[in-house]
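Intended use. Records such as the 5'-nucleotidase SurE entry shown here are meant for training and evaluating sequence-to-structure methods. They are not intended to support clinical decisions.
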Amino acid sequence: MRILITNDDGINAPGLEVLHAIATDLAGPEGEVWTVAPAFEQSGVGHCISYTHPTMISEFGPRRFAAEGSPADCVLAALHDVLMDTPPDLVLSGVNKGNNSAENTLYSGTIGAAIEAAIQGVPAIALSQYYGPGNIGLDNQFEAAAHHGAEVIRKILAMPGAFESVPYKLFYNVNFPPLPAAEVRGIRAVGQGFRENTSGMGMRADIAPNGRKFLWITGAPQNVPSGADTDATANLDGFISVTPMRADLTAYDRLSTLKAAIE
C-alpha cells in the first residue's frame, strides 16, 4: 500500500511523527509512506487553497516534502506533482494536536486535507487527538492515537464500500479521547455534534505598544459534550469516535420546504 500523510500542524509536528508510525504499520514492509506537509503551522485554515499565488515545495528527505501552503495545497501537490505517476492508495491527515470534533470540524485544516483527497477521488481519513486532564501530563500526549490508530483505520478499510459515494466520495473523521491508551473504552460510530451553550469562536482586541489595535481569535471550552450519539460526547466518555463525512453541504431535509416556498 502507498500512503500519503499530511497535517495542519506543520512538517515538524510531533503528531505527524505519530501518523508516520501508524502509516508505516499499515503499509507493511512492501509499502511506501510519503509525506507532503505544510512548511509552517496551518491550523484553522479549513479547506483553504492557495488559489491566488504559487506554492513552493521543497524535498526534506526521501519521500518527505514540505509545501508553503495549506493542507489542501499539500494534497494537491502530492497528487499532481510528487506522486503524479504513482498515486497513493490512501491519504491520512493528522494526527492533529487537539480535537476536531463537533464544530471544530468546520475550521480544521486536518479535515480540509481529507476533503481535498476525497474530492480528488482518493480514500482519506483524518485523525485528531483530544487533549484534556487525562492525557495532558503524559510523556506522549498522543498515546491513545499512537496505540489505537492503525486498528481503527484497518476497521474502516475492511468495511465494504467504505469510501463509495456518488458524486462526493466519503471520508472519515477519527478523534481519540483525552486518555492514556489503556483507558480507552472502545470505538463508536457517531455523528458530528455541536457544543451548545458555548460562545464558539470569538475575537479579542488588544492595543499594541505603538497604539495600533490587533484582533486575536479566541476559542471556546472543549470539555463540553455535543449531544447524544455524537463525536465530542463519545470522546469525553472515553471512546474513539469515527464519523463518516462527505463534502456535500446541502441541507436535504429543507429542500422540499424551500421548493414549496420559492417555486
